[in-house]
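QA checklist item 7 of 12: single-chain prediction sanity check.
[x] sequence parsed
[x] length recorded as 423
[x] structure emitted
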Amino acid sequence: MLIYSVVAYLFLKYFVYIPFCFSSARWLILQYQNFKNVRDMLNRLNYFIMLAGLLVLVACSSNSGKQVEVANTPFVYDGLKEYPVKELKLSDLAVSDYVLLKDDENSLLGRLPTNPCMQVTEDRIYIQDEEQQAIFIFDRQGNPLLQMRHKGGGPQEWASLNSFYVDSPNKEIIVLDWAKKFIVYDLNGKFKRSFPTPGCSWKFANLNDEAVLIYCPFTNRNNGEAVCILSKKDGKKLYVCPITIDNFVWDSEGRIGYEPLKPAYGGILFSDLSLKGVYFIDAETYEVKQVIDEMTEYKFENAEFVKLHPAIDAKDYTLYTTLGTKWLTPDMPMNYYYFDKKEQKMYTLKNETGWAVLKDICNVQRTRTTNTPGIGIGYYWPSTMKGESMQAEKEQFDSRFRAIMDSIPEEGNPVLQIMNFNK
């Protein structure tokens, strides 16, 4: 029995226990090696991930640079090129409302300038009257509210009304006086403050809640600084935009009638007869980008040119029209364009010679803009619209407009067509 026990012990020790221990040790060694391999593999994986991440960051940075480069590369417009036609009605882009500006002995409008300063807010309509040197204020139903008649030589008055902006967030009306100063009133026309403009200032536009953009084309009288950003509080110069006006082109006969500063989404579009192309000034960063370049060259000696000019800026597109005194070809008409901001493509719109927007045709002219992005205005005097020559055109107009015109006398304030492109 003892012999059998010894034999069994030796068998278990040398053929079971020792091999088991050896196998276990070998397994542990292999596991340790595997762990090292795994650790090495994980380390290598970490290095790979870091390297891949670095490559991705570099690629993204490179991509981002390309995107900025594309965004900063202006679309090149050729006034003699035929662009694809886009079939659009005005009603495809905008909602139109018609408002009769009611009149009494104190609210009868006189002569409006070629491109009158007008603004529509949530509850009011503001219109500049050039003849009376006044600002007329109506509610959105066309009822007269008050007139700002502050022409004079005092510190709280304007010598010659240039233009204005209704700053609704700050509850102020900012007036630019040709006498080189800004005058600020509250919404009821009460004086608040004034401050001088830099040099001989021609036009201005609201940039943001704190600043305005001012255009001084007579740069030899303004230290060469054509486009400046000023504080609304005191007129302090915040920034000088890097835009140079070398040869100022003056529309002396007033045949063109346009505004060089157009309200746009996120900033201001700047387009002037003296500049080649269209520029965008960012409301937050003050960065200046050229968004449109032009191939058509000016001929200053005889003022022959075709120039692209923004009419309405909406979120996804900009409507353009053309400016010109003498056309490059005798039969070249005024053109209208739809520019797709995302596609960076230009499209030609149907051209209608007369009363286009009243016929639901999207020919928004340079004069049909306001101080508010995406809002256009057409104004129609009863004396013109009720004439015999208009009877043939009348049936093509909106029925709401026809109803208003049929109900009023020939003498009176104009009927407004307020076009909201922010729908």
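[x] summary fact logged: The two ends are 105 Å apart (CA to CA).
[ ] second reviewer sign-off
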